[in-house]
Amino acid sequence: MDELDALFDSPLPENHRSGVVSVVGRPNVGKSTLINRILGQKIAIVSPKPQTTRKQQLGIYTDAQSQILFTDTPGLHRPQHKLGEYMVSVAQESLRDADCILWVVDGSVPPEAADIYIAETLNTLGGQTPILLVLNKVDLLATAQIDHQAAYTSLVASKQVLHVSALTGEGLEALLAAVHDTLPLGPRYYPPDQVSEANMRFIAAEVIREKIILHTEQEIPYSVAVEIDEYKERDEETVYISAIIYVERDTQKGIVVGKAGAMIKQIGSEARVELGEMLNARIYLELHVKVLKNWRSDPDLMRRLGYRMPDKSDS
Ligand SMILES: Nc1nc2c(ncn2[C@@H]2O[C@H](COP(=O)(O)OP(=O)(O)OP(=O)(O)O)[C@@H](O)[C@H]2O)c(=O)[nH]1
Ligand SMILES: [Mg+2]
User: Fold this and answer.
1) pLDDT of residue 236
2) Are strands 225-235 and 238-247 parallel, antiparallel or unpaired?
3) Residues with CB under 6 A from ligand 1
4) Which ligand 1 atom is the nearest neighbour of the CA of 46?
5) Torsion 55-25-97-167 (CA) sign
6) Same fold flag, 2-182 and 200-304
7) Which of 24, 36, 42, 46 most suits a substitution to test ligand 1, by most atoms within 8 Å of the C-beta?
8) Angle in degrees, CA 284, 290, 295, rounded to 5
9) CATH code for the part of the protein at 200-304
10) Domain 2-182, CATH number (from 3.30.565.10, 1.10.8.10, 3.30.360.10, 3.40.50.300)
């Protein structure tokens, strides 16, 4: 808290820097984990399964010298349905406005086809924007093991390589310093205590979706969308949330509900605990499961669920 007070109280130095940092990489390399770790709190959901993040999300990091606006993006991959196309376009859009790009890779494994595809995308940007190559998950490398730095650096014209572990925090100070150096001089755009732009309805839907991803297998994590249809602060200590979980098929509904409702109870109780801690309130959470046939292939249904294609126009 003292640190935060100091940020509010002291004037900005003349050489204060700020800017937008696009965090891209293939699914599951740890982009969201990295941003949560840098901010010291969870603003983005995380899972061991790929394609967890679906929308661009801002993570605001403030210190005495700089304000860094990290944009977490969906993992870049070859899309197989309209939702995938949407996710990829969100990530590509984020590259356009960035002052700096963090290309996050899993440094514990060699590049995959998806990494090569991303490197090609980055190379078409023509070197206008500085790219930092971030080899994440170095905690998984045994000391004797060689990392895969050379294999990744050969793919892209990146001046700088950072070795980090989003899990342990190793290397993050050096990463922040390197990002700071790429940013232009600029003001503080957000108050120093603000870490995200997301509202509580969105966060609640995401936390519920994370619990579903963690407890389900195969197609279900990818087929689920969560909509908050009621969010009420009943009093200072109590929040009432009613959410609809959409799946694509009747069989999926059966699995998400579970035997005698066991699965949905488990998902609800984990989401309730986490949201309760976040909001420091007692949460009443009601979950309903509905089938919305093949919504991931239907642009109208996707829009209804909040996945709206970014405007392609240049204006
Ligand atoms: N060992 C280890 N695991 C990590 C590290 N960073 C992330 N992970 C794990 O990697 C998995 C994926 O992390 P996410 O942060 O969801 O990955 P992402 O890149 O945001 O994935 P998408 O949103 O699907 O694109 C999770 O199980 C994390 O716990 C790390 O530094 N070390
Ligand atoms: Mg993510």
Assistant:
1) 86
2) antiparallel
3) 25, 27-33, 46-48, 50-53, 74-75, 136-137, 139-140, 165-167
4) 16
5) positive
6) no
7) 46
8) 125
9) 3.30.300.20
10) 3.40.50.300
Closest ligand to C-alpha of residue 170 is: 1
Instruction: Output the pLDDT for position 195.
Output: 95
Segment holding 284, helix H or strand E: strand 282-291
Alpha carbons within 13 angstroms on the beta-carbon side of residue 244 total 11
Burial of 291 (0-12, 13-18, 19+ CB in 10 A): middle
Q: What's the confidence (pLDDT) of residue 98?
A: 95
Residue nearest to atom 26 of ligand 1 (CA): 48
State in Å: Cα 136 to ligand 1 middle. Answer: 9
Q: Strands 131-136 and 17-24: what pairing?
A: unpaired
Please list the rounded mean pLDDT of every run of 10 residues in the chain (315 residues): 83 96 96 97 94 94 97 92 92 91 95 93 85 95 79 87 96 98 96 94 97 96 96 94 98 97 98 96 97 95 87 47
Q: Kindly list the domain boundaries of the chain, sorted by start residue.
A: 2-182, 200-304
- Token digits for 47? 């899972």
Cα gap 105→11, rounded to integer Å: 37
Name the token pair of 130. 């500085």
pLDDT at 144: 63
